[in-house]
Specification:
Elements lengths: L10 H15 L9 E5 L2 H12 L8 E3 L3 H4 L3 H4 L5 H10 L12 H13 L8 H11 L3 H8 L5 E5 L1 H4 L1 H6 L8 E4 L5 H8 L6 H16 L4 H14 L1
Parallel strand pairs: 1-3, 1-4, 2-3
Keywords: ATP-binding, Hydrolase, Nucleotide-binding
Protein name: FANCJ protein
Organism: Chionis minor
Length: 236
């Protein structure tokens, strides 16, 4: 039944609920926003979820967005020192005739959380909890966290997931009409600079210069490659 100590027990609120139901029936999206909680490090997310677990809101649907470095459970990719993002994409595309069986089991995690929620057993969790569950169910924790975002009321993530437009696009994060909370927001300036900065080594510049030399010398899109080659020469 309705609460007796808050506004949802009034007739006005019931009227609003009815109008919201009509909106849903007409195909309009719900106006209830998600809360995006951005932090500087993954360690801070662990601290916040631990505190959330101690509150009355521990059973609120949530998810944590993080990189493959923290959530990949594929034995080869997770133990590799090379670029895990590239290795993951290659597996998903089946470039070498191999696929990722953990990716195909993603639905097991969301079903597990849905089952827990139905029995009132849902509780705030951390990245380590999700990875452990992924290993137990043989399901990818990285993509499971993204899938759980659809039904989540609170989404925890590092700053750059909210600030960097490329990451927002790849993670399908839409902040319009949502609530954004930035923990220790005085760190935002540094994070914003990092999001639009890029670092290269001298060896990478020399390798790029050699490739561009080959392109120009073989008349492959000279107009495009000559300015790039000039930049590499000036930097080296």
């Amino acid at each position: 039944g309705p609460c007796t100590e808050c506004s949802c027990s009034s007739g006005k609120e019931i009227g609003k609920d009815a109008s919201n139901t009509k909106k849903k029936e007409n195909g309009d999206q719900s106006l209830i926003p998600k809360i995006f909680f951005g932090t500087r490090t993954h360690k801070q997310i662990s601290q916040i979820t631990r505190e959330l677990k101690r509150t009355a809101y521990s059973n609120v649907p949530m998810t944590i967005l993080s990189s493959r470095d923290y959530t990949c459970i594929h034995p080869v990719v997770s133990n590799s020192s090379s670029n895990r993002n590239e290795m993951c994409v290659e597996l998903l595309e089946g470039k070498h005739g191999k696929s990722c069986l953990y990716y195909h089991g993603v639905h097991k995690v969301s079903e597990h959380h849905a089952l827990q929620s139905a029995h009132g057993m849902c509780q705030a969790w951390d990245i380590e909890d999700l990875v452990s569950l992924g290993k137990k169910l043989r399901a990818c924790a990285y993509f499971a966290a993204r899938e759980l975002m659809v039904g989540a009321d609170i989404v925890f993530c590092p700053y750059n997931y909210l600030l960097d437009p490329q990451i927002r696009e790849s993670m399908e994060i839409n902040l319009k009409g949502q609530v954004v909370i930035l923990d220790e927001a005085h760190n935002i300036e540094d994070c914003a600079r990092e999001s639009v900065s890029y670092g290269v080594t001298e060896s990478q510049l020399r390798a790029a210069r050699e490739e561009l030399d080959f392109m120009v010398n073989n008349n492959i899109r000279q107009k495009d490659h000559e300015p790039l080659r000039a930049v590499c020469y000036s930097l080296t």
